[in-house]
Structure formats: C-alpha cells, structure tokens
Amino acid sequence: MSTEPRKRIAIESATDLLTAEPPRAQTGRRPGALTGGIVLVFLRALGGPLWILGFLTEWPGLRDDFDLDSESAAVVLGIVIGGVALWALVLLCFAFGLVHGSNTARMLTQFWAAISITAAAITYFSTSESITVRATLLTLALDILILLALSSRNARSWTRGRSRRWIAFSSAAPRRTPHH
C-alpha cells in the first residue's frame, strides 16, 4: 500500500482544508513536487536576465518610438533593467527559501505566480497584445507549473513540517455545528 496521502477531489469543503494533517518531518525526503517547483522557480528567475538581453536588443527602436532624449532614455533603461533584476533576485530568494523548506516562501511564490497569471490574462483580454512564445507563453507556462507544483498536498505538508503554530491554528478552527 502506498504511503502517499490521497489525492484531493475537485470539490472539497473548506473545513476539510483546515483539518490537521499528520505532520511530516522536514528531515525526511523532499517531495518531488516541491523539488520540481524549486527548479521551475530557478528557471523563472533565469528568465529575468534573458528578458533583459532581449529588451536591450529592442531598446534602440523603443527609444526612438518614444522619442526619448539621452538623459531620459538612460533613466528609463535603468528603471526597467533594475526592476527586472530586482524581481529575479526576489525569485532567487524565494527559491532558496523553498530549498530550506520555508512555507512562507512557498506561499509568497504561489501568490506571485497567481498575480503574474492574472496580469497576463488581463493584458491579453484588455489590449491587442498577443501571447507569443518569445515573450509571454514561456513565462506564463512556468507560472502555471510553479503554482501546480507548490500547491500539492505533499509540498504543503513538507514545508509546514512540525509547525506548532499551524497545529494550534487548525485545532482552534471553529467547527460548524448544525442549528436546531
């Protein structure tokens, strides 16, 4: 018989999600879903420098399209490159947190992936910008895969470890009782 926990059904009540699962020690083997999620976050962070290189090849045309003088062009270029580099650094911090079993890093990474997916959808539906393999499709696919990998039951259980705060929270969760 398998030691893996049962897979969740498509429709699950919120109270089932708050019930305490048997804690899994962090000294145990890291689940495959979490390892895959870590690799995907590293790949997504690597996308930042690659995006910067692609942006630099398009920069002369963009600078001319927006009719920027040399001083304002340098400021805009610095802001864009600095922002993307900072975001890649944040992703690397999330990945290192995941390597060390941080549940906070797992939750923040999932939040970021959900925001990124939502932003891509809003951009696609509200503008005439298309989804291309070079720009959006690869990052969107990585974001979806990251979200799937890090939201698995095994990844959640392993990163929670033996957190007393979570066990205290889940045991203190109010139980619904039928009213007579």
Protein model, in words:
- The protein is built from seven helices and no strands.
- It is mostly helical and 180 residues long.
- The longest helix has 34 residues.
- About 3% of the residues have low confidence.
Structural class: mainly alpha
For the secondary structure, the number of strands is 0
Radius of gyration: 21 Å
Overall 3D geometry? elongated
Which blocks of ≥5 consecutive residues have pLDDT under 50? 162-167
Quick tags:
71% helix; 7 helices; 180 residues; mainly alpha; single chain; 0% strand
Structure in a nutshell:
With 180 residues, this protein is mainly α. It has helices spanning 14-18, 32-65, 70-99, 103-126, 133-150, 153-160, 164-172.
Show the helix and strand layout.
Elements: H1 14-18, H2 32-65, H3 70-99, H4 103-126, H5 133-150, H6 153-160, H7 164-172
Helix pairs in contact: 2-3, 2-5, 3-4, 4-5
